[in-house]
Amino acid sequence: MPEATLRTLSDPGRAGPASRLSRLAPVHWLALAFLAAALGFAAVAWATGNGFYLRLATEALIFAGLAMSVDLLLGYTGLLSLGQALYFGLGAYVSALVLRDVAPSFWLAMAAALLAGGVAGLIGGVIANRVKGVYFALITFGLAQVAAKTVYNTRALGASDGLIGIPQIRVGFGPFSLDTADPLSFFLLVLGLTVAAYAGLSYLMDAPFGRTLAAIRANEKRVPFLGFNAWRYKLAVYVLAACVAALAGALYPMLRGFVSPELMFFETSGNAVITVIVGGVGTLVGPVVGSLLLTALRSVVGSWTEHHLIVVGVIFMLSVIFLRKGLVGALLARLNRRGEQGRTAP
Amino acid sequence: MSKNALLRSVYALSPLLALLAAPLATAGTAEAADPIRIGVVTPLSGTYAPIGQQVRWGLELATKEVNAAGGILGRQVELLFEDEEANPAVATQKAEKLFQVNKVDFLTGTVNSGSTLAVGQLAERNGRLIATTVSFSDAITTDKCSPNVFRVNARAGQQSAALAEWLAKDKPKAKVYYLGPDYEMGRSTVAAFKAAAEKTGAQSTGEVFAPLGSKDYSQYFGQLRAARPSVLYTSTAGNDTVRLLTQMGEYGLLRNLTIVGASGTVTAQNIGAIGKAADGFVTGVGYSAELATPENQAFVAAFRKEYNTAPDLYGADSYGLIGFFKAAVEKAGGTDTDALRKAMEGLSWSTPQGAKTMRAGDHQAIQDMYAVRIAADGSSTRFDVVGTVPGDAAIGPDQCTRF
């Protein structure tokens, strides 16, 4: 496991209350820098009236949520899920059905997706956690394929055509409200949710819960000797990841106005794993950076050549070979090294 | 240290910042330029790439001819291609880029119906028009019709109606057995043809559904024989058709049995692998390269000269779309969405497939349909036209209620 990340994880624990901000771990500084960049981007795009790039960035953030859920499993617990799109797609379909058929309410759609993601995650988790390693990866893959094929063949869910006609809605916050049809408002909303997810999840990963997950990743057999039930923790993080993926998925039909079974296909799951590995495993901010980078790259390269998948594949291979800890992992290693030099210098 | 760390992170992220500033750089190029721009969102990679290739060739050939003859209203036509990977999630993103960044006047190319429906909704929200030249799901111009979506190719209903018409004429009161792949599209295709065939007097003797990707079809041959049909209808596709027809040939079931099927059952892609077993297969379709009209012969010759292969249904329908668009823009006097929609509704134009008329009520093109029989004599294969069904007989009622 990345040494840098372990140190990162232990940093906030050492920070005293007085110097909490100045002792903020480098990974959080990266997250703040990223947030500033995102707000700067939003300002530029808004000033130039460029809705397309705002909506593309919104989509990247939505898929970043899926990638974060993969990172919870892969980076923190050492479980490779090849079927996380199952929960993403489930959230998307539940949200779409609620918005179209029940009520155009943002909070109701999110709550329904969360509930569905939790229940499905519990069922899927009980099945998948019966096995370890490559078998875990295969079972998660199989579960997602079964779900995708079922949706693909269910007429009531639009079958292969998917569902269209998901309305654009207003999101209410007490006296305020914003419109999902407005690119800037919806981008800021999704950005806010992403930051909240990042903050909440990285807090949880620094808490004893996350430390136990790290112990499971390091050596699962020794965890019971410390008095913890590894299976329960693995199930809990699996359900947590399913909920995160379902919430991210619930935002998709609000942005694009449709859902289709392709959202559950292996392509979606596989892309999320690639995003995490390119961005930085076990950092939570890595998946977000990776998602923005790969989405932008696909959009730009895709317009030049139909061989864009080769470009993404080469980037993936290069990052596996040269940036073992992904983009953010490499950055963190540099920051930590320099930080140490700064501390030891007189 | 913290301040430095922040500065360092910003410095380290600067390539990303440059990428994020992309909207600034492209904002200036968004003005509507002189040429008429048509966006083409079509699968250029993956399983559907051969279809996307035909779409691209058809559109490029027609555009070249239009531009050589002076363009549309004196403006050249420019095609902008984007790969949709046959995935609606990719298609909408690419289509939005074409609409908002490239400011295209019109959009086409989507292949699978999911993409067409999703991009159609996007077109509505962007106030532009699209047309599909490939998707044949009935929903696009019936219950999920959109005022901003047009279809210039024949839908599934027209194909099965044409095949049923031919069957009623050529083999009156035929005893038909149905064999389809066991998934939603396979079952609905069989159900649609069954309804059409029973209406024209055919007798149904039974049906069976085999799993997608079946390796062995011989387990169904007992039921098939016992039902004593004179006609077998199948809606399998790709390699499933290869296995079904070759196994039927090995079991001697092809004698005294006419095989008919959906338009995607035997195609240029799998006919080589089926070989002689494809001989005599009949389907209802909107085009064959063997059509003996002068317009079609000229089109096929030009297509062969340019791309060294014959056009198929998708290439022909896509080629015809440019003629439709040209006629509509000239009638409307420009590319304004409302004027263009009005001009397209009820428009008649000529294509290599014969004259087509865009029905105003549901934006579905009406065209003559053809019953096509495959002649495979070992070395070469032809799609011979064995019957023509007039457009009005195949089109069916207008079921669109949205506009």
UniProtKB/TrEMBL annotation, chain A:
Topology with respect to the bilayer: Multi-pass membrane protein
Top-level taxon: Bacteria
Keywords assigned by UniProt, alphabetized: Cell membrane, Membrane, Transmembrane, Transmembrane helix
Main location: membrane
Subcellular localization: Cell membrane
Name by which UniProt lists this protein: Branched-chain amino acid ABC transporter permease
TM spans (from-to): 27-48, 60-86, 106-127, 134-152, 184-204, 235-252, 272-297, 309-333
InterPro entries assigned: ABC_transp_permease (IPR001851), LivM-like (IPR043428)
TrEMBL record, chain B:
Pfam families for the chain: Peripla_BP_6 (PF13458)
Keyword line: Amino-acid transport, Signal, Transport
Presence of the UniProt keyword Mitochondrion in the record: no
Top-level taxonomic group: Bacteria
Segments forming domain Leucine-binding protein: 35-378
Signal peptide residues on this chain, from the entry's feature table: 1-27
Any coiled-coil regions, as ranges: none
Keyword Signal: yes
UniProt record similarity statement: Belongs to the leucine-binding protein family.
Identification of the protein by name: ABC transporter substrate-binding protein
Species this chain originates from: Azospirillum endophyticum
